[in-house]
Design a protein that fits this description.
The protein is mainly α and 456 residues long. The chain has two domains: 189 residues, no CATH class; 250 residues, Orthogonal Bundle (MetI-like fold). Strand 1 and strand 2 form a beta hairpin. The longest helix is centred in the N-terminal third of the chain and has 37 residues. It is flat.
C-alpha cells in the first residue's frame, strides 16, 4: 500500500495555513494532535488580548484606552504614554505612568517573542511534513511525533522552563536598563506625575562629549581599574605566600594559624568595613588618637575625609580590602598545594634545585594553572565591589572635579549614588551599560586566553 497522500498539496499551502491560523497546516496534514497543540497557543494569545482589553468600543477604539495586554503594551513601549497626571484636590488625576508602560511593554514583547518561536516552529513543521509526504515519505501520527520529539530533544525540553525563567529574570532587567539609558528618566521627569520621553543617544553624548560627566567617568573608571587590579594581585600574592608558609613542615600547629588567618574572611565584609570606619574616624577614631599619643603625628589624621590628600583614603581602602580578601586565596592555594605530587619535589631536590627554584618552577606554575580562572573572577568581583568601599568611605573624600562622586568611588558605587541618591536613572543606566561592556569584554577576553578554560 502506498504511503503517498490522497491529495498532493504543495508544501507551501500547509505552511501558509499555519502562518494564518496556528495548527491549520497540521490539520490539513491530518495531524489533529499537533494541530491542537499549536492552536492552543494561538487561542491563548488571542483570548488573553481580548480578555484584557475593551474591544467593544466601536468606532472610538484606541490602543491606549481599549487595547489589551499586547496591543497596549506595545503602544506604551513605543510612546511611553501621552497623558500626564495632574495634582487635583482629590489627588493625582488619571494618566500614564511611563515606567510602568515601559516594563509592561517589555514583558509583552518578550512573551510575543517566545510565542513567535512556537509560531515559526509550527509553520516550518507543517511545510516540512507535507514536503516529506509529497516525496513518498511515511505518515506519522501526532503521538508518534511526540514520542520521537521526546527521545531526540529530551534535554532541550527539560531546559525550556529554565530558559523561560532566564528570559524574564535576567534578560528582562537587562533590556529594561538598556532602554532607560535612551530616555530622560531622572528627578525632573519622575512618574507618575511626569511623563518620560525617548531622547536617543543624548545621555551617551552627555557622558562622552568632554563635559564634567566625562571627567568623572574617566577618573572613576581609572581608580576602579587600579582598585580591582591591585586587590586581585595583592590578595593572590599574600594568600599564596601564607599558604606556602603554612604548608612548610617546620610550622607548628598549621591548622590553628590557618583558622586565625581565615577569620577576616569569615566575618561579613560589611561588618568589618563599619568597624574599620569607626577605627579610622579622623575625629574620634582610636587609630588617629594613638598616633597622636605616641608622638608620630601632631594632629589627628582624617583618613577618609581629607580632600587635599585623596590617595591616603585610597591606600587605606586597598589595605583593608587586602585584609578581607587574602584568606580566600590562602585557602584556595592551600588546597592546591595538597594535591601536588611529592615526587616532583623529590626529583627536583635530586637534581640540586633549591627551595626557591622548586617554588618558582613547580609550585607557582601548578597553582597558577588552577587558580587563573578564579583570578579573573576575583578581578570582576573587585571591579564591582560595592559593599567595602561604600560602607567604609561612602566614596569620600569629596572631589570638586567630579559630579556626584568622591575620590574613592568605584563605578558601581557611583552608579548607586546616581540612581538612589540623585535620581538620575538615565545616566545610571548608561553607566550600567558601560560597566557591563567593560567587565564583560575583559572577562571573555581573559577567559579565552586562559589555558585552564581552553582545556575544559
Amino acid at each position: 500500500m502506498s504511503n503517498a497522500p490522497s491529495s498532493r498539496l504543495p508544501a507551501l499551502v500547509p505552511g501558509l495555513a499555519s502562518a494564518l491560523v496556528w495548527g491549520a497546516g497540521q490539520l490539513l496534514n491530518r495531524q489533529a494532535g499537533k494541530a491542537a497543540f499549536y492552536f492552543a497557543f494561538f487561542a491563548g494569545l488571542v483570548g488573553w488580548e481580548i480578555a484584557s482589553g475593551n474591544y467593544y468600543a466601536g468606532m472610538d477604539f484606541t490602543a491606549r484606552g481599549n487595547g489589551g495586554f499586547f496591543v497596549k503594551g506595545l503602544w506604551g513601549l513605543f510612546t511611553l504614554g501621552t497623558q500626564s497626571r495632574q495634582m487635583t484636590l482629590t489627588g493625582l488625576s488619571e494618566g500614564d505612568n511611563s515606567i510602568t508602560l515601559l516594563a509592561s511593554g517589555l514583558i509583552a514583547l518578550l512573551v510575543l517573542a517566545l510565542l513567535a518561536v512556537i509560531w515559526i516552529w509550527g509553520v516550518r513543521d507543517a511545510a516540512a511534513y507535507r514536503a516529506t509526504l509529497n516525496t513518498g515519505g511515511p505518515r506519522e501520527s501526532s503521538a508518534a511525533y511526540y514520542r520521537r520529539l521526546w527521545d531526540s530533544a529530551f534535554a532541550y525540553i527539560m531546559l525550556s522552563p529554565g530558559l523561560v525563567l532566564v528570559v524574564f529574570m535576567s534578560v528582562l532587567p537587562v533590556l529594561f536598563v538598556i532602554l532607560v539609558a535612551f530616555t530622560n528618566y531622572n528627578r525632573d521627569h519622575l512618574p507618575p506625575k511626569n511623563l518620560v520621553e525617548w531622547v536617543g543617544f543624548d545621555n551617551f553624548g552627555a557622558i562622552l562629549s568632554g563635559s564634567a560627566w566625562t571627567d568623572t567617568f574617566l577618573g572613576v573608571l581609572a581608580w576602579t581599574f587600579v582598585f580591582a587590579l591591585v586587590t586581585t594581585v595583592a590578595s593572590y600574592a599574600l594568600g599564596f605566600f601564607q599558604a606556602v608558609l603554612l604548608a612548610n613542615k617546620k610550622v607548628k600547629a598549621p591548622r590553628v594559624w590557618r583558622s586565625i588567618f581565615l577569620l577576616p574572611w569569615a566575618v561579613p565584609a560589611i561588618v568589618s568595613a563599619l568597624v574599620f570606619r569607626s577605627m579610622f574616624n579622623g575625629q574620634f577614631g582610636p587609630v588617629s588618637q594613638w598616633l597622636v599619643d605616641v608622638g608620630l603625628t601632631d594632629d589627628r589624621i582624617y583618613w577618609f575625609t581629607d580632600a587635599s590628600n585623596p590617595n591616603l583614603a585610597r591606600a587605606v581602602v586597598l589595605l583593608i580590602n587586602l585584609w578581607l580578601t587574602f584568606p580566600f586565596f590562602m585557602a584556595l592555594v592551600g588546597g592546591v598545594l595538597t594535591n601536588i605530587d611529592a615526587s616532583y619535589y623529590e626529583a627536583a631536590r635530586m637534581d640540586g634545585a633549591s627551595a626557591l627554584q622548586q617554588l618558582r618552577h613547580i609550585t607557582l606554575p601548578v597553582v597558577h594553572k588552577t587558580v587563573a580562572p578564579l583570578l579573573i573572577l576575583s578581578f570582576v568581583s573587585s571591579f564591582n565591589n560595592f559593599g567595602v568601599v561604600y560602607f567604609l568611605t561612602e566614596g569620600g573624600p569629596d572631589n570638586a572635579d567630579y559630579r556626584f562622586a568622591g575620590s574613592t568611588d568605584l563605578l558601581v558605587t557611583w552608579l548607586f549614588k546616581l540612581t538612589f541618591e540623585t535620581q538620575l536613572y538615565n545616566i545610571g543606566a548608561v553607566m550600567s551599560l558601560f560597566i557591563f561592556l567593560i567587565v564583560g569584554t575583559i572577562s571573555v577576553w581573559n577567559l579565552n586566553r586562559s589555558k585552564a578554560i581552553r582545556e575544559l
